[in-house]
Design goal:
single chain; 233 residues; alpha/beta; 11% strand; protein transport; transport; cell membrane; transmembrane helix
Length: 233
């Protein structure tokens, strides 16, 4: 009796469905991921064993460069009601209005300049120089910020205690605290709304002035950003 021939099955696999799933997964991860934002300077934070994570939303990051320059980054809610752009647009208008109360040379902003500021992840120029800075294209703005020897770069900070004549760092921080976003104020009160990121070579005097200013403003709870210590550290 002859052998029964087994009918060969086709090895062709329809990959259409798998391609659709791959595209859907890729789209999902792109929409839900939080991308690292560009910072004006590279800061090497000191090491620690703390594993507490700083939130990405409703948080103010104070970046202090090795040269002692201070920059700020402000984020709002993940939803559209108090989004980061809306919070920043309100912030710059509040800060400029406060600045104009104590300075004879008034700063005026156009709606286009306010809109440009709202899209900045991190900022750090004197308030008087903001209009000219915001009129520059993005590439030129990056060049200005990268020039850390320029006295106009960095938010001015000193050991001022007189809040009737606040320095610019105090103006910005008070404007952040008084934001119409209640979650931002609540985060600051809980100690989760302010994160300080300083380089291991940052001058102590600048770090001291920043911490002293926060205490003067009654913002006594904040986080210090560090790198997780490894077995070799």
């Amino acid at each position: 009796m002859g052998k029964v021939k087994i009918k060969k099955k086709s090895t062709l696999i329809d990959m259409t469905a798998m391609s659709d799933v791959t595209v859907l997964l890729l789209t999902f991860f792109m929409l839900t991921s939080t991308f690292l934002q560009k910072e004006p300077v590279t800061v090497m934070t000191p090491s620690s064993v703390s594993e507490i994570k700083v939130p990405f939303t409703n948080c103010t990051t104070v970046l202090i460069s090795p040269e002692g320059k201070v920059f700020l980054s402000v984020s709002g809610d993940a939803d559209s009601t108090f989004s980061s752009e809306k919070v920043r647009a309100e912030l710059i208008q509040t800060a400029v209005a406060e600045y104009n109360k104590t300075h004879s040379k008034q700063v005026q902003l156009t709606q286009e300049q306010v809109s440009k500021f709202s899209k900045l992840n991190m900022f750090g120029v004197r308030i008087a120089d903001l209009p000219a800075f915001l009129d520059l294209p993005q590439a030129k703005q990056d060049e200005v910020i990268a020039n850390l020897s320029d006295p106009a770069v960095g938010i001015p900070v000193d050991d001022n205690k007189d809040l009737t004549k606040p320095n610019e760092f105090q103006i910005w921080m008070r404007a952040i605290y008084n934001s119409s976003n209640p979650n931002l104020e609540a985060a600051i009160k809980k100690g989760e709304g302010i994160a300080i990121k300083a380089d291991k070579d940052t001058p102590y005097n600048t770090v001291h002035d920043v911490l002293d200013n926060l205490q003067t403003l009654k913002m006594n709870k904040f986080s210090l950003l560090t790198a997780l210590k490894t077995e070799n550290d």
